[in-house]
Every structure is written in C-alpha cells, then in structure tokens.
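Work Package 4 report. The design task specified in the project plan requires that, given a folded chain encoded as structure tokens, an amino acid be chosen for each position. We show below one input record used in the internal validation round.
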C-alpha cells in the first residue's frame, strides 16, 4: 500500500512537471480561427484555443506549435500575434474589425523633379552587398547573439551612411523590447517644417529556420534570411542613401525601422506601434517592405489587400505612384494584388492600431519564395538584386511624395523659369502659377494624346472638378500667352 502511494505520488509529480515544462515553452497569441483549428487537429498538444470571436482565436501556443504553423499551414509570416497575457489575447479579438483611421493626410503627387533625380541613382550593388552582409550572420534569430549583433551593426551602418553625407538632421537609435533581447533599429530624418508628422517605412531584421518536430535550439539553426528579410532592410537602406545623395530634406519627419522579432509574432513592431498609439504620435503613413528579392510572378510588385489591416487609400496612393512614375521607360514597374493572411508581417501591427499601412510584396503569395525559413534562403540561389531595385524606387517615391521636399524645387515642365504647382486630389485639379506668368488655357489629354478637357483661364490660381474623367493617367497642359507651355502628368 505504501509503495503504491509512493508510485502514485511520483507519477503525479512527473506528470505535473512535464505539464509545467510544456507551459514554460508556451505563450499567448491571437490568430486566424481556421488556422487554429487546423493546428489543433494536427497537433493537439501544441495549442489550446481559449476564446473565439468571428474568424479570430485567442490561443495558448507552444514554441513548437508556432514553428509547425509556419511549416504545415502558412506560406509567409508568423501567422499569429504575440500577446503578453490571456486577458490581452481575449481583448484583442473582441475589438472591432473596423479600422479607426487616424492622422488622415492628403496624398498628392507634386515632387516630379526630386523623384526624377533619385530614380537613376538607386544602386543594385549597394543592395546586393547589404543583403550579403546580413546573410553572413548565418542566423538572426531574435534570441541569438548574432540576432542582437545584427541590430548593433545596422545602427552603426546607418550612422555611417548619414555621416558620409554630412546629415546632422539624422539620428539612429536602438529600441529595446520587453519580449525579446533583440532591439529594433530606428533611423530618424527630422522634418524641417512639420516634424510632428511622421512617415514610416520598415521591414524586419530577424530571421528564422523552420524545424518540424525537434525541439533543438533555434539559436543554432542555419537561418541566412537573404530574402526574408535582409532584402527589405537593404531596400529601405538604399532608399535612404539615395535620398541623402540628392540632398533631400523632408518637410515631415521620416522614420526608417528595422523591426526585431517579427518571426515570433510581430513582437518588435507591435511594441513600437502600440507605444506610438499610446503617445498619440502623428504617424500619417506606414510602408512595409518584407521580401523584395525574389521575382516569382509576371507582375513586379503585388500589393497586399488585408481587410481591416492594409489601408485602401494608402494602397491606392502607392498604385498611383507606379502609374505616374513607372508606367513606361527605364523605370517601368508593373503591379498586381494579393493577400497574405493573418499576422503575416509588421504592417498588421500598425493597421490594427488604426494607422494607415500598406504592404507592397515581391510576388503573388502563391508564387512566393519557397526557400524562406530554411538554410536555402540565400542570395546565391537568386543571384541578382534587380527585383529589389524596383522596390527601392517605389520606397523613395513614397517617402518623397508623402514627406515632401522642403527645398524649393519645380515639377518637370517644358517651361522651367518660374515656380508653379499643379496637382490632383480626389479628382479635383488644383493649380497655382507665379503671378508673372500670363495664363491662357488649360487642356487635359489622355495617354493616347486625345483631348478630354479644355478650359479658358483668367486666374493664376484655381481648382477644377474632374469627376467626369475616368480613373487613369493624364497630361495637363497650361498654355501661356508667351507661347510657352507648362505640362504635368497627373493620376486620377
């Protein structure tokens, strides 16, 4: 009887210890309900569904369960968002799906001259070399020494780039996190006129390698992460360098962010976006650059459309940039649309906080790089950064047009002696010409050269409704009495 009692006690102790050890490897998160059910069906011991609301679930997930979710169910991204507690996870899925868009700004295309300067100097070798630098760490997993070191080295690299162009308006800082020892890195370019208005571009710095059933140390895995996401970091870095080279001074503040620990539930970007929301920071637009290297589809860039997360108006503006600057010629870029699922990248952190976020991706998700999260995610298997160059051009256009150039530049007219402004917003054309110019007539032509709108002008300032014109690219021509002509491309 005594021996039986001892055996029973030992069993209870051993079983309790195993459960406790398993729980130590677990964390709370939110995720797609369908993904949670699928993971529960395949690996019931790796996930506990705590609460359900609409198509979301609050879960208790093991570390292994997170990796199994990567390998067996998802195409890209962690597929879950880390929560610090059960209450936080449940509260997150209770919130409304309706995005509370804040800090609304007009997105206009007015900076032709500045953009035309930057496009030719985007350097493929700079992007290539930076990807290889990050790949050389071998593993940038968020808890690995090399993961933290990659952040420290990136801070130095960004500081050196700014110093090389004598930019005393640029600062670089590490952003420490609660959930991970790996810091995020943030480069700030101070706005000259509207410093409290912030434009963000970012990508994640960490990498991971998936393993199916073993519980080996993730810090020891080979995870070069060339495409996912050394390519995004190299892309936004080259965009910043190119802006420095042309002497671009933004009116609004630009923040370039390399997020930590994206691969374990968007930890870095979630903490930053939540803090910015709590501090009521005026972030007017966020662009996400996660994977830009692999050319897997017929179209160059695919815009992610995630309802309630990606912002429709900001995504439309990204499209307008490509229509305006990249529809033809040496800088031509084609685009399409895709979706990536729950919590697939850091744009989700910003979108769910109510900030406007957009996510241009390297391919249709069904054609994305199959080598991500493996030892084969290397630059050599792709061999060129030409695809990433297109994203660097788009990133530069986005930063220039949203942050705006504080220097006195002209658009790109056929008559260049005097200042003028011509732009369109919500199908309303606005124009303002120097009073020394004598205006005569305004005409609008479609891409085939057909005259679609004409109006006599009696004032150098004004607006015109273009609601009768279909969406597309047009050319505005303003005739002057001096027989000169001002021309400007617009996108409706």
């Amino acid at each position: 009887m005594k021996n039986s009692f001892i055996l029973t006690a030992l069993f209870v102790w051993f079983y309790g210890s195993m459960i406790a050890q398993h729980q130590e490897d677990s964390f709370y998160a939110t995720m797609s309900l369908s993904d949670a059910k699928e993971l529960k069906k395949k690996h019931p011991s790796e996930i506990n569904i705590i609460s359900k609301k609409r198509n979301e679930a609050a879960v208790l997930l093991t570390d292994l369960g997170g990796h199994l979710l990567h390998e067996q169910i998802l195409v890209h991204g962690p597929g879950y968002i880390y929560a610090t507690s059960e209450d936080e996870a449940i509260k997150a899925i209770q919130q409304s799906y309706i995005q509370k868009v804040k800090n609304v700004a007009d997105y206009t295309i007015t900076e032709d001259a500045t953009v035309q300067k930057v496009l030719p100097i985007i350097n493929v070798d700079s992007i290539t070399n930076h990807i290889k630098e990050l790949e050389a760490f071998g593993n940038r997993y968020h808890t690995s020494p090399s993961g933290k070191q990659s952040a420290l080295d990136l801070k130095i690299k960004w500081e050196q780039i700014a110093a090389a162009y004598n930019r005393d308006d640029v600062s670089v800082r590490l952003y420490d996190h609660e959930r991970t020892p790996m810091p995020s890195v943030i480069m700030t370019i101070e706005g000259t006129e509207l410093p409290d208005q912030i434009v963000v571009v970012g990508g994640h710095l960490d990498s991971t390698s998936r393993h199916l059933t073993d519980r080996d140390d993730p810090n020891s895995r080979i995870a070069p992460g060339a495409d996912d996401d050394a390519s995004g970091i190299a892309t936004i870095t080259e965009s910043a360098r190119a802006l420095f080279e042309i002497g671009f001074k933004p009116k609004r503040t630009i923040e370039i962010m390399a997020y930590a620990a994206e691969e374990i539930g968007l930890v870095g970007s979630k903490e930053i976006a939540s803090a910015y929301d709590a501090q009521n920071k005026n972030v007017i637009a966020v662009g996400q650059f996660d994977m830009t290297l692999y050319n897997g589809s017929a179209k160059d860039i695919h815009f992610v459309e995630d309802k309630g997360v990606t912002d429709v108006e900001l995504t439309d503006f990204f499209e307008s940039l490509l229509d305006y600057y990249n529809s033809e010629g040496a800088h031509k870029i084609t685009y399409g649309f895709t979706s990536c699922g729950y919590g697939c990248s850091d744009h989700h952190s910003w979108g769910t906080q109510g900030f406007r976020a957009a996510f241009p991706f390297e391919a249709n998700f069904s054609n994305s790089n199959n080598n991500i999260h493996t030892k084969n995610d290397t630059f050599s298997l792709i061999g060129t950064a030409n695809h990433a160059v297109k994203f660097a051009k788009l990133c530069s256009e986005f930063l220039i047009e949203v942050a705006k150039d504080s220097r006195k530049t002209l658009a790109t007219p056929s008559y260049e002696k005097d200042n003028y402004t011509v732009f369109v917003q919500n199908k309303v054309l606005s124009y303002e010409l120097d009073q020394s110019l004598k205006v005569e007539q305004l005409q609008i032509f479609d891409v085939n050269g057909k005259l679609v709108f004409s109006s006599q002008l009696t004032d150098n300032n004004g607006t015109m409704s273009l609601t009768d014109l279909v969406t597309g690219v047009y050319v505005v021509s303003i005739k002057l009495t001096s027989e000169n002509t001002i021309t400007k491309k617009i996108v409706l």
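The longest strand covers residues 194-204. Validation will be extended to a larger panel in the next phase.
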